[in-house]
Amino acid sequence: xxxxxxxxxxxxxxxxxxxxxxxxxxxxxxxxxxxxxxxxxxxxxxxxxxxxxxxxxxxxxxxxxxxxxxxxxxxxxxxxxxxxxxxxxxxxxxxxxxxxxxxxxxxxxxxxxxxxxxxxxxxxxxxxxxxxxxxxxxxxxxxxxxxxxxxxxxxxxxxxxxxxxxxxxxxxxxxxxxxxxxxxxxxxxxxxxxxxxxxxxxxxxxxxxxxxxxxxxxxxxxxxxxxxxxxxxxxxxxxxxxxxxxxxxxxxxxxxxxxxxxxxxxxxxxxxxxxxxxxxxxxxxxxxxxxxxxxxxxxxxxxxxxxxxxxxxxxxxxxxxxxxxxxxxxxxxxxxxxxxxxxxxxxxxxxxxxxxxxxxxxxxxxxxxxxxxxxxxxxxxxxxxxxxxxxxxxxxxxxxxxxxxxxxxxxxxxxxxxxxxxxxxxxxxxxxxxxxxxxxxxxxxxxxxxxxxxxxxxxxxxxxxxxxxxxxxxxxxxxxxxxxxxxxxxxx
Amino acid sequence: xxxxxxxxxxxxxxxxxxxxxxxxxxxxxxxxxxxxxxxxxxxxxxxxxxxxxxxxxxxxxxxxxxxxxxxxxxxxxxxxxxxxxxxxxxxxxxxxxxxxxxxxxxxxxxxxxxxxxxxxxxxxxxxxxxxxxxxxxxxxxxxxxxxxxxxxxxxxxxxxxxxxxxxxxxxxxxxxxxxxxxxxxxxxxxxxxxxxxxxxxxxxxxxxxxxxxxxxxxx
Lengths: 492, 219
Hints:
The complex is a heterodimer of chains A (492) and B (219).
Chain A: H1 3-24, H2 29-56, E1 59-61, E2 66-68, H3 70-99, H4 105-127, H5 131-149, H6 155-190, H7 199-205, H8 211-229, H9 238-244, H10 247-276, H11 280-302, H12 306-327, H13 329-361, H14 372-375, H15 377-390, H16 397-411, H17 415-441, H18 455-473, H19 477-490
Antiparallel strand pairs in A: 1-2
Helix pairs in contact in A: 1-2, 1-4, 2-3, 2-4, 3-4, 3-10, 3-13, 3-18, 3-19, 4-5, 4-10, 5-6, 5-10, 6-8, 6-9, 8-10, 9-10, 9-12, 10-12, 10-13, 11-12, 11-17, 12-13, 12-16, 12-17, 13-15, 13-16, 13-18, 13-19, 15-17, 15-18, 16-17, 16-18
Chain B: H1 3-26, H2 30-55, H3 58-85, H4 98-115, H5 130-147, H6 151-173, H7 178-206
Helix pairs in contact in B: 1-2, 1-4, 1-5, 1-6, 2-3, 2-6, 3-7, 4-5, 5-6
């Protein structure tokens, strides 16, 4: 067994063991310490794998069940980093919920166990080579995270979780059908061994796959994983689930889970483009990307609930990533990867600070949050900075990725699409900033004294923002190369 | 048994699954749809057994056994327990008048089967009706989920969609590798168990199993 295999197993065992321990031991700070320790270990494992991949290139493990390439590493690193931040953020969040009677000890323990399990399933998605196994992992993320969405046991949480479970499951049933069709296309070429479902094998033989079958397969996968990734018009479950979940979990859902599904979609996209050609994949991705951006704008504008507003913004940003991936070419594809990173870090930061604000003020209604800056200045600065960071301004990462999208589009001769898309994005950014500025700086009406915002919550909101800016503007050479290699995986 | 004979029986099973699916869409009572979906899964298992036997693929026997165990016994059993515990025997609501729903289901099935029964949709065994039937089942499952706002109908609608996809997979590619099929069924089982837990809570909060009460979150 290689070092990587041993460490992957150790990481998995740590997450599973910690999940079991949190369920058995009485609830207390210890629950959090165990969870944070396991998540830190998982982060270390992914870091080790990243070093290995950046030195020796992509690697197979456990026979050919696990395939770790740059794209997989980028996503897994985001899962690990945002996962650790979410667990850290959970300490003040869950303590507040327990103190205010929103959660009892039993459900608080269950919360940590579910978060750890959720992280384990998300790690599996970008690292599994077998597309069938990847589907199983994605469906598992739905089941576990649905339980997290409804952890508060209130009516709205139940409604959100029910819709999420049902729409999510039906949606990705379509992806399973697409996976079967890919297998159907591959069988005549590769034989009916398990190899016909391995992405590495399929990638090598993609040019020989039946184009008609692959075209249909991609349509099913696009609808299926597109549902899970929150692409419009299949996004209807997303604002409910992402806004009703506990805020650290909202950060995970919007920050990384959407990207896990998106990467599954993009991997199928590579096979489809090689088999079908003719820009079929690109046009499909651009169409769904534009639709997602366009659908989100009015909902951000009229939204009265701060977390729902952030959730709609996730639909928009997934649209941006799909648009960039659809435009294609080295620059726009790089922009897509960078936007994945930027949105993961920025949106989780936003949900962490929004969570702290919502707890401090006891409301999610934007008009009742007015005048945040005077009463809780530090977290407001983080919240506003993250909003600006999400809106494509320097010195934040989305500036670089959106700039890359536009310049990439012009060099690929797809300037018009980019101009339309970015026009809508600018509109969405203006609307989002207007909403947030209103909450932060308008005259305060709510006379209630807000609760205290913990330093830990503030820290988890600031760290990912700094990380995103650093990665976009001054990435160390290995990180930059990794992002470039990840983009190269998507190119055909 | 000749190849043509095998194709005929698979066609017959597939069409029978569609007929059962039409009854699922239009059935009044929660228990009836559970029995129907169990019957449909048995028919699916029969397709699996026949394919396994004729193509001499022993792993398909296991796959068919798993399908019957999970989709025809375990999940329907769970749903019957749910209905009993939640005293959920009341008639299920329908967004469409029952006659219209039934007519739509029949029209949808006939249209799909007629339209897609051409050459490109032949399975390797020559069962020309299997893939169109699978498509019809997916549409019938969707119709059930869209028009019947009841926990049991939502879950069975999902199972009908799953059955359609499994029928297509089984007849077109002789199923996926067994370990994957197993994982898929396990996920399916877990998803339905979670849906089951939620159903209990819906019943606790609202007093029945109807899901149209779940519409507070909008915009």
